[in-house]
Design a protein that fits this description.
The complex is a heterodimer of chains A (110) and B (116). With 110 residues, chain A is an all-beta fold. Chain A is built from no helices and eleven strands. In chain A, the strands form two sheets. In chain A, strands 2, 4, 5, 9, 10 and 11 form a six-stranded mixed beta sheet that branches. A five-stranded antiparallel beta sheet of chain A has the order 1-3-8-7-6, with no helix packed on it. Chain A is globular, with a radius of gyration of 13 Å. Chain B has 116 residues and is an all-beta fold. In chain B, the strands form two sheets. In chain B, strands 2, 4, 5, 6, 9, 10 and 11 form a seven-stranded mixed beta sheet that branches. A four-stranded antiparallel beta sheet of chain B has the order 1-3-8-7, with no helix packed on it. The termini of chain B are far apart. The relative contact order of chain B is 0.33. Classes of the chains: A mainly beta (110), B mainly beta (116). The interface between A and B is medium-sized, with 21 and 21 residues.
Chain lengths: 110, 116
């Protein structure tokens, strides 16, 4: 089946930029997503990018997509302690279902 | 907008009992709802996809007689875990999608189930 891989953990200092990376295998992906999950909560959609785009910026968030390498990244500028959470990368493939990565835990220290 | 709620937020039950979890789209009509299961420190695994008024489509390995899904209206889907056992303990999350905004799924806050 299709696979989505993410690094498991990232630690940054408050005010720094965070970059969370994701790779996927589905060449028919139409949309790619970033979700945020805080402890004990559901998933919050942060942003998504259509597969024919290279970049999307939304306030502090920048998504970069390298379709050739099947690589997606999420950059969070001026990271705050409130950004500490688990970030899931997901791709929407041919059957319109989402395949999620295992999540990257972002820890922001003061 | 695009708020999805789940009820209950957590439930503890005895082994052998059945538990019903509700998923509601509060401010939009959800033609499609999805049920996921998440184990600790794991990703979300899709269990089934349900379209309003029709039978749910289950993912491989998910027992449809054990996890009963009903999507009787455009704002409500239910997941019933029948004859629950401790291995069914998990975090169950639903999501909903409108018929128009096909690219986006909105997730509920999740229901934590503990079977003793």
């Amino acid at each position: 089946g299709e696979d989505v891989e993410q690094s498991l953990f990232l630690s940054v200092r408050e005010g720094d930029s965070s970059v969370i990376n994701c790779t996927y295998t589905d060449s028919s992906s139409t949309y790619l997503y970033w979700y945020k999950q805080e402890p004990g909560a559901g998933l919050q959609l942060l942003t998504y990018i259509f597969s024919n785009m290279d970049m999307k910026q939304d306030q502090r968030l920048t998504v970069l997509l390298n379709k050739k390498d099947k690589h997606l990244s999420l950059r969070i500028a001026d990271t705050q302690t409130g950004d500490s959470a688990i970030y899931f990368c997901a791709e929407k493939g041919g059957y319109s279902t989402l395949t999620f990565g295992k999540g990257t835990m972002l820890l922001v220290s003061p | 907008g695009a708020v999805v709620s789940q009820h209950p937020s957590w439930v503890i039950c005895k082994s052998g009992t059945s538990v019903k979890i509700e998923c509601r789209s509060l401010d939009f009509q959800a033609t499609t709802m999805f049920w996921y299961r998440q184990f600790p420190k794991q990703s979300l695994m899709l269990m089934a996809t349900s379209n309003e008024g029709s039978k749910a489509t289950y993912e491989q390995g998910v027992e449809k007689d054990k996890f009963l899904i009903n999507h009787a209206s455009l704002t409500l889907s239910t997941l019933t875990v029948t004859s629950a056992h401790p291995e069914d303990s998990s975090f169950y999350i639903c999501s909903a999608r409108t018929g128009i905004e096909q690219e986006t799924q909105y997730f509920g806050p999740g229901t934590r189930l503990l079977v003793l």
